[in-house]
Structure formats: C-alpha cells, structure tokens
Amino acid sequence: MMPQITINEKCTAPYDCKRCLQVCPQAVFMVLPTEMHTFRENRPEEYRLIVVFRDKCVLCNDCVDVCPVGAIQIAQKEE
Ligand code: SF4
Ligand code: SF4
Predict the structure, then answer these.
(1) Contact (Cβ atoms closer than 8 angstroms) between residue 54 and residue 7
(2) Total-model pTM
(3) Which of 5, 21, 23, 27 is geometrically suited to a Cys-Cys bond with 66, CB 3.0 to 4.6 A?
C-alpha cells in the first residue's frame, strides 16, 4: 500500500505558506523552484510544492488538516 498524495491548483503560494511542509512528521514535501535561473534569483511565485517521499507518508492527515485552502488530498491505494 502506497498513499497517493495529490496537490491541486489551490496551492498557489507554497513559498509563503509551507504549512504542510512544517507540520509533516515525515518530511514528505519540499518547496522547489519550477525553473533554475542562472543570472537572477528565483521569484516566490515560481516555486511549487512537490511530494518527494511519498513512501514515507504515515497517513496522519496533518497536512490535509493544516492546509488553509484544501489543496492536499491523500488516499490509500493498492499498487
Ligand atoms: S499525511 Fe502526515 S505523513 Fe503523510 S504527507 Fe501528510 S503530514 Fe506527512
Ligand atoms: S499548506 Fe496547502 S497551501 Fe500551504 S503550501 Fe501546503 S498545500 Fe500549499
């Protein structure tokens, strides 16, 4: 069983929010720039929340509860 973690388009400013990232006991999430720029700094709106360690998720649902916009969905799925 591997949890399926979906982040929808309601997560528009993960760089400023990061609440799911901070609450997750398993450090499943990361906020990363969508593109790497060589000659200028990345801007906050160019960051996205990504799921890096889906296999570490313990299905506690804390990230779902903490998200102010309801952007995270977690489902248990047979694979
Ligand atoms: S359900 Fe819990 S362990 Fe899984 S990603 Fe959310 S906060 Fe992390
Ligand atoms: S808590 Fe919700 S809005 Fe905030 S970064 Fe996580 S998914 Fe995005």
Answers:
(1) no
(2) 0.89
(3) 23
Say which residue the tokens 């998200």 belong to: 67
Helix (H, G, I), strand (E, B) or coil at 55: helix
DSSP string, 41-67: PPPGGGEEEEES-GGG-----HHHHH-
CATH number, span 2-77: 3.30.70.3270
For residue 36, give the DSSP letter: -
Ligand 1: residue whose CA is nearest its atom 3:
57
The Å distance, Cα 38 to ligand 1 centre, comes to 33
- The three-class DSSP label of residue 50 is strand
Largest CA distance in the chain: 45
For the chain, the structural domain boundaries read 2-77
Tell me the per-residue pLDDT of 39-69, one tens digit each, with 9 for 90 and over. Answer: 667 788 889 999 999 999 999 999 999 999 9
